[in-house]
Amino acid sequence: MDKLNNPKLRIEQYIGMKVKRKRVEQGLKIIDVARIAGLSQGMVSKIENAQVSTSLDTLGRLCDALGLTLATLFGDYDRPEGGAQLTRAGEGMEVVRQGTEKGHRYELLSYHRGKRKSYEPFLVTMDDASEVFPTFSHAGQEFLYILEGRIVYRHGNHLYEMGPGDSLSFEAEIPHGPEELIEVPIKMLSVINYDESVD
């Protein structure tokens, strides 16, 4: 749990990880690298396992042996902090959409999308109390992925029978929606992508 609270690697851990990865990529054993670098096998092992702070001279020799420049070694050490939004199962924000009155349940899975609203991901759930509603129409493109259940989905004049693992993408301004609920409960991921900013 400590790693989750403070995920940034110590410099020794970072060096060890990069050195070991490069060695393994090249199919070299620790003993081979140690011999080429003029270091002891124990020293190379300690560096890889972050058990020692190494001098720049030692690190330079090790990098030379691996064909790794110091610039490449440290290239992404100070990467940006980042910060993604994690939404746990069942913790999406329940929202009201056009199909809510037809018994469709919408869980918005991401609601921090930057300065512009460019996409909306929903978990849509339908059960035996839900009604078909094949006349949704809105801006953007939509991508559907069936997680559970079976459905006949309409897009314009075309019908698509879909089950778990099937996906469908389409222009969302053309009327679309469930034509027939074959096997409930139905759970599907719906991602709506907007061409331009939609407020």
Count of separate DSSP helical elements: 6
How many runs of DSSP E, i.e. beta strands?
7
Helix content: 25-40%
What's the overall average pLDDT, rounded? 84
Q: Please state the overall shape, judged from the principal axes of the Cα atoms.
A: elongated
Largest sheet data? 7 strands, antiparallel
Low-confidence stretches: 1-6
What's the helix-strand series? HHHHHHEEEEEEE
Q: What is the radius of gyration?
A: 26 Å
Ends distance: 38 Å
SS-based class: alpha+beta
Our estimate of the beta-strand percent is 25-35%
Blueprint of the fold:
Blueprint: H1 2-5, H2 11-25, H3 30-37, H4 41-48, H5 56-66, H6 70-73, E1 93-95, E2 105-108, E3 119-126, E4 141-155, E5 158-162, E6 167-171, E7 176-193
Antiparallel strand pairs: 1-2, 2-3, 3-7, 4-5, 4-6, 4-7
Helix pairs in contact: 3-4, 3-5
Please provide a written account of the structure:
- The protein has 199 residues and is of the alpha+beta class.
- 25% of the residues lie in helices and 29% in strands.
- It has six helices and seven strands, in the order ααααααβββββββ.
- The protein has helices spanning 2-5, 11-25, 30-37, 41-48, 56-66, 70-73, and strands at residues 93-95, 105-108, 119-126, 141-155, 158-162, 167-171, 176-193.
- Strands 1, 2, 3, 4, 5, 6 and 7 form a seven-stranded antiparallel sheet that branches.
- Helix 3 crosses helix 4.
- The radius of gyration is 26 Å and the shape is elongated.
- The chain starts with a helix and ends in a 6-residue tail after the last strand.
- Residues 1-6 have low confidence and may be disordered.
